[in-house]
Amino acid sequence: MWKHGTSAHLVLLVFAISIVNADIYLHIPRGSNNRLNENTATRKNANRLFDSQNNNRGGYNVGDKTDAASGDNAANQYNMKYLQSGSWKTMSGDQGKSFLTIEWTNQHGCGGDQNNQQKQNCALILQYMCQDDTQSPTADTLRNGVTTDTQGYTKPNNNNIAADRKTTDVNDKRGYHESWDWYNKCYLRERNKGLFVADQMLTANNGLGYSSAIYTRQNPTGNRYGYECPEERDYFPYWHPTPWSDIAILAENASVCSHYTSKSFNVQPYGECSQNSSRYNNEASCRQNGGVWNLLYSYLEKAPDKRSQAACDATKVTGLTYKWAVPFDGTVPECLVLLDKPDCREAPWSRSNHLGNGVHGLPLNYTWTLPNFPSGKIKSCVFRIRYNISTDDYDPYKTDYKQNEEFPKKSPIKQNPYVYVMSNQSPLRLALNTAQYGRVFQDRSHVFKLIPRPVGLNQGRIYNLNVRGKRGNIVQTYPAVEYDFAPNTLEIKKEDMVHIQWTGSNTHNNNNPAGDGQAGDAGEGKGGTDRSNFVELSDRSSNFPTPFENTQLWKNVKVEWIYFGKNDISPQDLAINMASAGYYRCAINCTDSVASKAQMNNLLDNAPASYEGALLRFKKEGSYHYMCTRNNNFSNRSQKGGIIVK
Ligand SMILES: *[C@@H]1O[C@H](CO)[C@@H](O)[C@H](O)[C@H]1NC(C)=O
Ligand SMILES: *[C@@H]1O[C@H](CO)[C@@H](O)[C@H](O)[C@H]1NC(C)=O
Ligand SMILES: *[C@@H]1O[C@H](CO)[C@@H](O)[C@H](O)[C@H]1NC(C)=O
Ligand SMILES: *[C@@H]1O[C@H](CO)[C@@H](O)[C@H](O)[C@H]1NC(C)=O
Ligand SMILES: *[C@@H]1O[C@H](CO)[C@@H](O)[C@H](O)[C@H]1NC(C)=O
Ligand SMILES: *[C@@H]1O[C@H](CO)[C@@H](O)[C@H](O)[C@H]1NC(C)=O
Ligand SMILES: *[C@@H]1O[C@H](CO)[C@@H](O)[C@H](O)[C@H]1NC(C)=O
């Protein structure tokens, strides 16, 4: 894995560093850390979809729809469904926006000010990718897959380069985020030779006679992770078209924001050499070699009903830009709805050597205003967060290939250097891995859906309220987390809407191998199963639910939407539906009523692992509290939350 080691001792040491460091974990939405549905504490395949650089223990399994493991039936996986924003650009203030508060932990610290200085430079990059949801999947359909294997890739050589390798490489049972074509272009495109790689020796020949974008300082021998492009992964803003749309950059200092936002692919096109000469990574060499340098665009979505440039240009919608241009994933101009500039702000403060909360004990978070897709279509999407840390031992923005070891001017950093601080020349050795000096960590969600708002609800704010965590006690779940509701205290205004939804797995057994942590899945109910429910509490320090007769919550909400399509459900029936995690739908007069259905297990074992939810409008000010009866275990585990309506 590490090419530069000259002694076995050195190689071992470097390897140890790379597995002990732990890193960035996404909790809302649930980050996979490359897990799928394995019942072991460690993930099975760190190369499944992306390069996380994380510890093998983190991550959450894909959700299951029912009380049974989805196994090899992808239709029984649960995809979280978030209601898109309405057409908020035509409204004032926050009206029409849907909010999803992302939560994560990052290990090395970020954010801060003069009084609370960081020990490294850092940035967090939040992105997503979506496609139209489809009932008839193709090779390129986003999917979690049902096996933990990595998609295939037949390396090109001079004999097979023109042949159809994709059809044999892509497997519909395996996870798929970036497309095969994206990785293939990366494999074929020369790497950016202007980059600083320190003393790393990057593989010089991809089999076609040159070094390409699959080799980077952090990935010098070109290990493959799904169809992610290593050069794109390691650098942001990237200088070629990418399939990712930028949501936000949380930078070490807001003063660097214009650097990020002006170069974001959301707001400016990037070039690519025409397909058969896609080896060339800049306009001059592309043309010299007879290629055409095409400027390609990112987009919010395509508007295929606008079939001509005239029709596209003539489309005027408040707040939206329609442009006739070649999309990053196409070859001919189409009508595109362009993206907005990403948000950029200072990262929330966190401390080094700690996978936990930020200031005031609150989780590291960013509230994403979910997009509004003007087509009104359902989208299938993936969310990605990257965490980039670098040092001031060299200027990360001004140091380039001229400081690479291969030039006469030596690299400013070297592998595990010996330094002299004592006058009598007894050197001290530093722990320095040049492949990780400046390092990017990553986590991604499983596939989720962005669904249009129900008819009549274009206006108004929607807040997502979900459950984070997985089965197990604090050491068994680490570096994932124990169950809790998130956002734990949700502050909203009267008339705002809350979408309560959760997902869980039936295979979170956390069995051996447990890597460098503990196996085991302490918890209530059937081993390996995540369950949650939602019952009212009169006050947050108590642990007994409020009987329905004394309700404050249910009598003050209006159901605007519920997953089984009947929004005139009574408050009492809704309370039953949520208390039973969707097992019952009402007390007496419906399918799945308490009166008619087989009795539910007291610990929800036979209730579904995921609850698609209801959209509640809070009609009255007040503080409402709630808990999960199964997982709340006083002195060991708390799963309670509050909604404060002002
Ligand atoms: C952020 O950048 C500004 C302007 O360059 C600088 O004055 C300030 O000290 C920086 N803050 C930190 C914490 O480095
Ligand atoms: C990480 O930071 C370095 C500067 O140290 C920068 O060159 C690189 O583009 C950044 N990568 C990502 C993914 O943010
Ligand atoms: C592209 O490839 C085709 C054959 O596959 C060839 O005819 C054409 O000359 C090539 N164009 C360039 C610019 O290399
Ligand atoms: C998110 O973090 C900020 C601090 O950066 C905090 O003020 C806010 O309450 C947090 N939000 C949630 C929902 O935890
Ligand atoms: C409560 O949690 C503890 C610690 O995980 C566990 O030992 C116990 O079995 C749990 N449940 C009950 C009902 O005691
Ligand atoms: C039961 O529901 C049906 C259909 O929704 C309705 O027609 C009937 O009146 C209801 N019966 C009772 C006792 O509520
Ligand atoms: C909490 O866990 C401890 C063991 O860690 C156990 O002895 C205790 O009974 C648990 N409390 C409850 C309420 O189950």
From TrEMBL:
Q: Does the keyword Signal apply?
A: yes
Q: Where is the signal peptide?
A: 1-22
Q: Does the keyword Signal apply?
A: yes
Q: Which InterPro entries match?
A: Protein_DD3-3_O-glyco
Kindly state which keywords UniProt assigns to this record, in alphabetical order.
Answer: Signal
Polar residues: compositionally biased ranges: 503-513
Start and end residues of each stretch annotated as Disordered: 141-161, 503-541
Q: Which PANTHER family match?
A: PROTEIN DD3-3
What's the protein called, per UniProt? Protein DD3-3
